[in-house]
Amino acid sequence: MSRLRLLILGGTSEASALARRLSGESWTAPVLSLAGATANPAPQPIPQRLGGFGGADGLAAYLVRERIAAVIDATHPFAAGISANAAVACRAAGVPLVVFTRPPWRPEPGDRWNEVPTMTAAVEALGIARKIVLLTQGRLQLAPFGRAPQHRYVVRAIDPPAEIDALPEHKLILARGPFSLAGELDLMRSERIETLVAKNSGGGATYPKIEAARALGIPVVIVRRPPPPEAEALHDIDLVMGWIATHRRAP
Ligand code: NAP
After folding, report:
1. In this predicted model, what pLDDT tens digit does every residue of 97-106 receive, in sequence order?
2. How far is the CA of 38 from the centre of ligand 1 (A)?
């Protein structure tokens, strides 16, 4: 029986979890694709490829060349470019596509959220008065905060962000999640954080910062997700495994 060739578009804990699950399924031949943004990506139990495909056309050509039978878009909900490309490429190449993503967080009692549409709007929402602000969006989208130089920024990222010098007063903390609630409480207390800026990523791995802000009464400027890609979306790994199984070839 030939194995089912799968492409997982990754860069998230969901993609890594799916890679672990598929590594034990000998009827599949999965490849995990990463953008190559993180200098030392965590090791994975299945073959990886790194770097862009060259837009939707490049991805469609890859799907045909590699005889990919199905694509699982498990990229981050804010990675709108690759998800849009995947939808176009899969349609063009006639390859089935499913989106494996986490539901967005919803505000709970005690949360002090100000929801904004973009990171630029998040900068505006910080206001004029000086604050100590925790930025957790990683390497990307720091430059807009250079337009509000009155604040002190505590920036947490996996790798040193290229844009950090746009922030006149900052402290860089290099760390890779998942982060615990106790750790997030410590960080917010010790850095005297007054506002958290976060994307509404959803999922458990980065939720403790939201819980810590709630516990400490810290306001959160939360950036809404971009529109979802045009494809069936599943939030549960077992449902994704079931979807993959529907494409299993007969022996
Ligand atoms: P993006 O704006 O949607 O993608 C930019 C370009 O990077 C894409 O057009 C594609 O290049 C390439 N690319 C992105 N993901 C790829 C993948 N998994 N495999 C191969 N190429 C990929 O994405 P982004 O916001 O820069 O995020 C980049 C990666 O980091 C994503 O894989 C995402 O899952 C992960 N990530 C993003 C965030 C976030 O907040 N945005 C957070 C955590 C993790 P080509 O057009 O040349 O194919």
Report:
1. 999 999 999 9
2. 11
